[in-house]
Amino acid sequence: MVHTQLFTEKPDCAARLSKEERVYDLLQKLKISYTGVDHDVAPTIEACREIEDVLGIMPCKNLFLRNRQKTEFYLLLMPGEKKFVTKDLSHQLHISRLSFAEPEFMEELLNTSPGSASVLGLMNDTYQRVHLLIDEDILSQEFIGCHPCINTSSLKIRMEDILEKFLVHTGHSYVTVHL
């Protein structure tokens, strides 16, 4: 269930996890505006459809991937409507095989759990071990939807702010992919 009350400032953090509170603090520090909404757990793109309708944004799928050796990690942002074909992305990156990364890597590198991955988790990747991949269709959108490191809230943020403020702050760059 999606709560219809939208927020544009840091919500009361008494009932929120510290990792979510740190997201709001960083967005405030970077002067990144957002519109947010709280909702029931939304671990899948299907569960997020109603949320994206409330926020007025394109569904964004966030996939956390790794190479076979478990030495390279990737966060892929792609339209929720697109089908993910591992071999197509592996070919573009010149990697023999990509797999979904295990939950322990997601927790260690992004401080998130499955179903909560988003670009905002890169704030926790202080050694830039995660490579950001963004599908060209996501890049063409004015806004992106993302979880604040927990999948019981969603935020609508300008793509320009993510690219020019947030990623600059975290030290991450991105690679544009075509899926």
TrEMBL record:
Residues 42-163 form the YbaK/aminoacyl-tRNA synthetase-associated domain. GO terms for molecular function: aminoacyl-tRNA deacylase activity. Gene3D superfamilies: YbaK/aminoacyl-tRNA synthetase-associated domain. InterPro entries: ProX/PRXD1, YbaK/aa-tRNA-synt-asso_dom_sf, YbaK/aa-tRNA-synth-assoc-dom. Belongs to the PRORSD1 family. This is Prolyl-tRNA synthetase associated domain-containing protein.
